[in-house]
Amino acid sequence: MINLLLSCLLSLFLLAGCSGFSDFEDLEQSDLQRNAIWPDPAISSANCPVVEQQLVEARALPSIVGKGGCGSKAPFAVSMLKGQHAIDFSREATLNCVMTSQLHRFFSETVQPLAIKTYGQPVASIQVAASYSCRPRNSRTGAKLSEHGRANAIDISAFTLADGRTMTVEEDWRKRNKDGRFLRAVNLGACRYFTTVIGPAGDKYHQNHFHFDHGSHGKKGTWRLCQ
Question: 55, 66, 70, 184: which one has the fewest Cβ atoms less than 10 Å from its Cβ?
C-alpha cells in the first residue's frame, strides 16, 4: 500500500506542479516505518560490504576521535558511487559505512531511475556541501551534536546530469518545471533510506541543500523525520 502511495506521489511530482512543496510531510510515521529500507545488517566497524565489493570508490580512514562525542570508529573518504551509472562526488565525503551503503542504494535504486525517466539520462555527479564536521546541529551554540559529527550525515546541494546540465537545490527546488519536480521527488524518495531527510521545506537552515543522515531517533531508534 505504502509503495503504491509513494509511487503515486512521485508520479504526481513528475507529471504536474505541486500545489504545495511539503506534500511528503503528510506521510504518517507508520507509513514511513513500513516503507523503510534499513542498512545491511552485516555492517560493523570491521565490515563494510559496499566497500569490500567495490560498489563505491572509497578509502578507509583512521578512526576519528573528537571532542563532545564527535568521531567515527571506521570512517571512509568516499569519492564515487559505482554501478551501471557511476556518480562522482565534487569532493571526498567523510562518511561511515551505514551512510555510504545507504547512499549507494538510494542513488542506484531511486535517483538514477528517476533521472532517466525525467531527463533520459543519469546523474553523473553531485555537489557535496558537507560531510563529517564536529559541530552542533545547524551550527547553533548549545544545540545537540549534529550527525555530521559522527560521519553519519551528508549535505548535497546540486545534481549534474551526464550532459552537464545542473540542478541546484537553492535555485530549482521551488520551480514548477521538471527540475523542481525532480528535486522534490529526490527529497521524498530519500525518506525510504535515511532516518532524517531535510530540504527547503524543512527549515531556514536547509534552503540550499538536502540533509540526509541515519541518526537514531525515538525510544526504539527508528523514528524517521521526512521534511
Answer: 66
